[in-house]
Amino acid sequence: MILVSSPRQRPGACQIKQDSGLLPAGRRGRCNDYFFVVPGSWRLLTAFLLAVSPALAGCAGPAGPVPAQQVKARKAPADFELAPGSAPWGGCAVSAGGASSLIAAALHDRNAAGFWEVEADTVRPINEAFEVGYHPDSVAACDPDTFAVAVEGAGKILFLRPGRAGVSRIAEIKTPFPTRDLLCPDLDGDGTRDLVLAPYSGAKIAILWGEGGYAFAQPQFLEAAPTPWHPRLVDWNQDGLSDLIWADWDTGSVRLYENQGDRRFELRMLQPPNPLKPRQLGVGDIDLDGRPDAVMALEVGKAARILYNRGEGRPVGIEDVPAPTWGYVSAEVMRDGTLALGEEGRVLLARKIDGKWRFRELAAGSLPSPIILSDLNHDGNEDLIVFNSAGDGVSVHFGPLWEKAVPIELSGKDPQ
Ligand SMILES: [Ca+2]
Ligand SMILES: [Ca+2]
Ligand SMILES: [Ca+2]
Questions:
Q1: What gap in Å lies between CA 273 and CA 354, rounded to an integer?
Q2: How is 231-284 classified by DSSP, letter by letter?
Q3: pLDDT at 70 over 70
Q4: Please, what sign has the CA dihedral across residues 214, 118, 85, 232?
Q5: Alpha carbon of 139 to ligand 3 centroid (Å)
Q6: 307 CA to middle of ligand 3, Å?
Q7: Which residues hold their Cβ within 5 A of ligand 3, which is an ion?
């Protein structure tokens, strides 16, 4: 058994591969088309350049450069750094029964998927570089012991099963388009897993209805605007059926497809097209009123935008949560309503106390997106898994997260 040591391992230099989301649709290329090498000490400058690139390229965003503030090196360090130096574009975590959990990551630059087992506060690699083909973008849990990996560059999905003896290849299917994100729910409740696929580029979400085992029907498409990345499952109208929600990157709109049953969906626009640049969208009950809400990580605009669920047929309530510099690249919601918001080099926790947003920070790497919350070690506290997609591997913070995180003021000054 090999134990992963806990000290942080920071590469002295990293290759930052520019996720296509930072470029306007007309100029998007394949994953390898835009990259540059930056020494670690230039990380902040790199982050600044990445953040202002949409404005420089003519995208909607703030007019002129956004001032980068000093980021203090006192944020709470991660407990584990996995696959250091890799570029995980996606990942997930799932309880594996007993006291253990599994973490899976799509290591885009290594053409591999990484798998780790967490037991108590120990992380054991199962296979940190299982070869899957050209450019995997995301991975989803299908069953507690099976994962689906979207290999965008190869136009396929692999079903993999990690175990004590390593990782087994279970099945493989072709996809209707190069796939950026995938989910693996049973959307029609027939007892078989279905697949929800989001394209690397395009304006449609595909649903592949399961026919048992790893066979799937021809895709059913849901209309979107370009580019409908990172769809999420949420029972927005609380009728017991999982609905689909996502933000369209190119237009800033947010679509909710309410699941009507019998493989029918009804579109409800939660946000019309606007100049926002939403990357990840998190879901959870932010105001603790019993209804799930959504929060958009806005890459520019100096905010994350909350969409409060006011009930069936009623418009959402909007609240913007300020950002310290240019915006956020990822968003999640903790069980107690606290927001986790990824920013370059850190994840901020935002909690409303006495009507005012308070912030704390945890260390992360470059382009921390996506982030997920899961109680990995089954101690009742949510843990944070950060996929540092621009080349800094996977960071794991064990909870309690709010107590562990370091308080900050958005001005950059320490709280009094
Ligand atoms: Ca099904
Ligand atoms: Ca529903
Ligand atoms: Ca709510």
A1: 33
A2: -EEE-TT-SSS-EEEEE-TTT--EEEEEEEETTEEEEEEEE-S-S--EEEEEEE
A3: no
A4: positive
A5: 28
A6: 9
A7: 285, 287, 289, 291, 293
* Mean pLDDT value across residues 247-268: 97
Which amino acid is it at 164? R
In the reported structure, the alpha carbon of residue 206 is separated from the centroid of ligand 2 by a whole-number distance in angstroms of 18
Instruction: Give ion ligand 1 contacts, CB < 5 A.
Output: 186, 188, 190, 192, 194, 210
Cβ atoms of 36 and 16 within 8 Å: the answer is yes
When pLDDT is cut at 50, 70 and 90, the band that residue 98 belongs to is confident
CA of 266 to the centre of ligand 1 (A): 18
**CA dist 184 → 15, 20, 88, 181, 194 (Å):** 31, 24, 19, 10, 6
Contact 321, 293 (CB under 8 A): no
Check: CB of residue 257 under 8 Å from CB of residue 183: no
Question: What's the rounded Cα separation, in Å, for the pair 337 and 380?
Answer: 16
406 Cα: distance to centroid of ligand 1 (angstroms):
43
Q: Which two tokens stand for residue 210?
A: 């399961």
CA–centroid distance, residue 303 to ligand 2 (Å):
28
- State the distance from the centre of ligand 2 to the C-alpha of 256, rounded, in angstroms: 10
Give residue 254's pLDDT: 97
Residues 6+ apart with CB under 8 A from 380: none
By three-state DSSP, how is residue 64 classified?
coil
The answer to whether residues 386 and 368 touch, using CB atoms and an 8 Å cutoff, is yes
Task: Using alpha carbons, list the distances in angstroms from residue 364 to 6, 344, 367.
Answer: 14, 8, 9
The single-letter code of the amino acid at 397 is: H
Give the whole-angstrom CA distance, residue 101 versus residue 103: 7
- pLDDT at position 63 over 60: no
* Distance in Å, CA 135 to ligand 2 centroid: 33
